[in-house]
Amino acid sequence: MAESTYRIQGATGEWEVVIGLEVHAQVTSNAKLFSGSATAFGAEPNSQVSLVDAAMPGMLPVPNMECIRQAVRTGMAIEAAINKWSRFDRKNYFYADLPQGYQISQLYHPLVGEGSLTIEADEKAGIPEPKVIGIERIHVEQDAGKLMHDQHPTMSYVDLNRSGVALMEIVSRPDMRSPAEAGAYLSKLRQIVRYVGSCDGNMDQGSMRADVNVSVRRPGDEFGTRTETKNVNSVRFVMAVVESEAKRQVALIEDGGKVVQETRLYDPDKNETRSMRSKEDAHDYRYFPDPDLLPLVLDDAFLEECRASLPELPDAKRARYVDGLGLSAYNAGVLTNDVDTARWFEALLAATASAQNKPEADVAKQAANWLLSEFFGALNKLGKDLSTSPISPEGAAELLALVGNGTISGSIAKQVLEKMLETGDAAGVIVEREGLKQNSDTGAIEAVIAEILTKNADKVEQYRGGKEALFGFFVGQTMKAMQGKANPQIINELLKKALAG
Amino acid sequence: MTGLTDLGLIAIRDGVAKGEFTAVEVAQAFNAAVAEAQEALNAFIVTTPEAALAAAEKVDATRAAGKELGKLAGVPIGMKDLFATKGVQTSAASKILEGFTPQYESTVSQKLWDAGAGMLGKLNLDQFAMGSSNESSAFGPAISPWRRKGDTAALTAGGSSGGSSAAVAARLCPAATGTDTGGSIRQPAAFTGISGIKPTYGRCSRWGIVAFASSLDQAGPMAHDVADCALMLEAMAGFDPKDATSLDMPVPDWSALLNADLKGKKVGIPREYRIEGLNADVAKAWDDGIAWLKDAGAEVLDISLPHSKYALATYYIIAPAEASSNLARYDGVRYGLRDLPDGANLQEMYAATRAAGFGAEVKRRILIGTYVLSAGFYDAYYTQAQKVRTLISRDFEEAFKQCDVILAPTAPTPAFALGEKSNPLDLYLGDVFSVPASLAGLPAMSVPAGLSSDGLPLGLQIIGRPFDEQGVLNAGLAIEQRAQFSAKPEKWW
User: In this complex, which of A51, A55, A294 lies closest to B244 when CB atoms are compared?
Assistant: First the structure.
């Protein structure tokens, strides 16, 4: 495996960066990890709080198996060992957003063990080959509530809507060596959880956030002392944290200082990290097994259902698009990058194949090219995307079928698409109404060609004299004369014949 | 109507059903007894005479309508103030929860109301159930109705369910709920001449019971006799999906299946419980118990529970460890006491609130628990204690290969005077016979066996296999029939 060549240039030489990420991903579930409360984002403060979430006296947690299931499926998607026996521990500390005075987590016996994912090669980003990033574990735990300091001049308010929401903590190995690798890892992880459906991956809503562990060393040396920058909430910021924190550490060491193990916060406005608390004031969390909960024991039937319900994952899908559908690696990559795009494409593909009565592999290129080069652009112009598209995959397939069977040409199809977006009408309706059907009447086309050759006798002369580039001119003139509706293939054939004299 | 308060739970239930008296008459009689004794015995933290009457009226109406009556129809009971009761202060005998009125009802109390019982009030206890004498209650201890012969010194009603034991013994209620973490049902029952059973861990839902030590806490009934306990336990027990440690097993008809004939049964006598300097009265009661069980047809044999000597130390690590975490929620943020000194920040508010809201014994246990869980000490204390706990459970498993139930004293001494045991360790030592069964999660009950030389009740403890409450109750009944314990405290209040 080619190692990253990313280096920080210090005054005294080159430094290598070592990165590990702890990603907190909110589990997609209607209810919290240990209570039946709802979990919707953006609800009125304290409107999604049960007696359990507020830690009223005598309240008890009961595991929500849907949350467990989603974490197990995520573990399976990174080919990790699933622990059929795991246990919940209490992490004890006092804070106003933590009603129980402890967070229920899994320290000693996590639900998911060792796994990995592969980041793609990206020559431009300094990732010459695909790279496997180890994942140490995934455990499930409760989220805390939220403090609001801007509601009252002297008091803080507490919103417990998030209190008790299920999180997966996905802990990587310190296997990344550049900001690009860290960014690629987080993107890949986000892609996987979105495919699996275990987390919506909305980083701006806090559904996914990363604690970024960074250390520096001379290339090949032992690991240096790491710092942990908390709650970084975008891929871009993760990359920025790695870079700025690595540079800070290098400057510090080269100045004769020492990196201290500490928790830091990232300030995106200043693009720098600052110390939050050092190891010395770190809490003693007094972890111990939660006596309110029995060990979590999963049976084979549960695990089988988890596995059976896993969708095709991005790597497999991309490979199939290339090998099975004959798409270019680039197009396959773009189409599988996000699960919503892949789903839309596959619906389009199925509808297109059925509309044209052809195998999917025969229409895949047509569908992919149209989606990527026509439709995305058209949606973009309207400020829309696939999720807000006014055209369904079936509606698009109808349009592609009209092209496929020669009813309209590719350029007419562009006009029809615009009209579809404008009016919401079906492609066939628009073609009929606007008289856009392609003319394949060879007699009519021959007549037009004859007229054009007569009008442009001089150019015919030149063409026949060897200036074959003029062919395009004749095609254009013919098409123009027929308002673009003539079948271009037929024009080509008939023109060649006529020009040959 | 004075005779009504002498009746036990089943007698009241049957009398109401037959129309010998109305449920309202019963409630009125007990309400009066409660009111009369409150100042002297301090058994209740809150009395709820109107709740008792309302429940009774409902029962009378149900009966008048010819509809089916619940298992405990017409029986007014006392509710230990550790059970959350909707709309009625639930304080755990602490300042930090004084004035806290839950908007929910604990599973166990709801089951009792559903069975037709009514609530006379919330019973006193050791603060957060931490204590063996009721002296840690923030509202002063419940006083035992019993007195030593020729002495007026106030005695403990035991703990932590001391309000429950005092009230049942003084006939302020025919039965009461208790909770038992290390003996908190059995010891107070023994001290006051009543019966009480701690079922197998998980039989009664813990949902809505203020938590002390989650892996040990179990609710159970305290009543005049074994049959009353059996019936009340039927009403309290049952699977609860809201408690992840609840047992998903059917509740047997314990009271219908009571059988004092122990032919073919084997009773184990643990030799390690014959501790040096065992109180002579207690030792004699134990010998009496052995004789009674033989008389009931049982074979009695010596057994060994070799790790018993570590049980107390183990208990006083595990219970405080869990408590230190369970009590973290009392922080002044959401409910209960908040002490916010001028200009205090969050940490200072926590400190002030908890300093003012917790009593000395609770603080002591939070400190012990925090210590044994802290980095560097965790393995030496908590992990080690968990290992020993496993060994103690294994002792019982081995023993139950030889015997069906185990007979032992409930407590090493009869009730002591309030203030007599000023050293917390002396109090902890009183739990020596009760904590092993708690650590192993086994059903165990205390039944009265007789009086000490100075006229105080003595209890015998029967410990059974997991889920074998029936075996425990049957052995208890065999003792009850032979002990013929009919002594009652002389009314001085």
Answer: A294
Concerning whether B446 is annotated as a catalytic residue, the answer is no
- The residue among B58, B119, B60 whose CA lies nearest residue B90 is B119
Q: Output b/e per residue, B385-400; b: 16+ Cβ within 10 A.
A: bbebbeebbebbeebb
- Indicate if A426 and A446 belong to the same structural domain: no
Task: Provide DSSP, A138-194.
Answer: EEEEE---EEESSSSSS--EEE-TTTT-EEEEEEE-S-B-SHHHHHHHHHHHHHHHH
Last residue of a domain, one of A434, A464, A479: A434
**pLDDT tens digits, one per residue of B238-286:** 999 999 999 999 999 999 999 999 999 999 999 999 988 889 999 999 9
Query: Beta strand pairing status for B76-80 and B118-123?
Result: parallel
Please report, for the domain that includes residue A486, its CATH number. Answer: 1.10.10.410
Please tell me whether residues A86 and A179 are part of one structural domain: yes
Distance CA A415, CA A428 (A): 13
How is B340-366 classified by DSSP, letter by letter?
Answer: --TT--HHHHHHHHHHHHS-HHHHHHH
Q: How far apart are the CA of A148 and the nearest CA of chain B, in angstroms?
A: 14
Residues A364 and A447 placed together within one structural domain of the fold: no
- What is the count of residue pairs from A and B with beta carbons less than 8 Å apart? 97
The contact set of B with A (CB < 8 A) is 83-84, 90, 92, 97, 100, 102-104, 106, 206-211, 213-215, 241-245, 321-322, 324-325, 327-329, 331, 333-335, 346-347, 350, 370, 373-375, 378, 382
User: At B137, which helix (H) or strand (E)?
Assistant: none
Nearest to A62 among B208, B214, B241 (CB): B241
Last residue of a domain, one of A434, A462, A480: A434
Structural domains of chain B, with CATH: 1-493 (3.90.1300.10)
Length of chain A: 501
Residues A258 and A150 in one domain: yes
Amino acid at A405: N
d(CA B194, CA B157): 11
Query: What is chain A's pLDDT, residue by residue, as a tens digit (501 residues)?
Result: 567 889 999 999 999 999 999 999 999 999 999 999 998 888 999 999 999 999 999 999 999 999 999 999 999 999 999 999 999 999 999 999 999 999 999 999 999 999 999 999 999 999 999 999 999 999 999 999 999 999 999 888 999 999 999 999 999 999 999 999 999 999 999 999 999 999 999 999 999 999 999 999 999 899 999 999 999 999 999 999 999 999 999 999 999 999 999 999 999 999 999 998 766 667 899 999 999 999 999 999 999 999 999 999 999 999 999 999 999 999 999 999 999 999 999 999 999 999 999 999 999 999 999 999 999 999 999 999 999 999 999 999 999 999 988 888 888 899 899 999 999 999 999 998 888 887 777 888 888 888 888 998 898 889 888 888 889 898 888 888 888 778 888 888 888 888 886
Residues A477 and A351 grouped into a single domain: no
Quick one: how far is CA A351 from the chain centroid? 24
Known active-site residue B80 = yes
Task: Give the mutation candidate from A88, A146, A288 for the B interface (greatest B CB count, under 10 A).
Answer: A288
A19 and A121 within one domain: yes
Closest residue in B to A288 (Cα–Cα): B373
Give the domain extent around A154: 8-305
A85 CB-near residues (< 8 Å, 6+ apart): A109, A295, A296, A297, A298
Report how far residue B369's alpha carbon sits from residue A341's, in angstroms, rounded to the nearest whole number.
54
Kindly state whether residues A429 and A446 are assigned to the same domain: no
Specify the DSSP class assigned to residue A3: P
Residue A1 lies in a domain: no
Q: Give how many domains chain A has, as a whole number.
A: 3
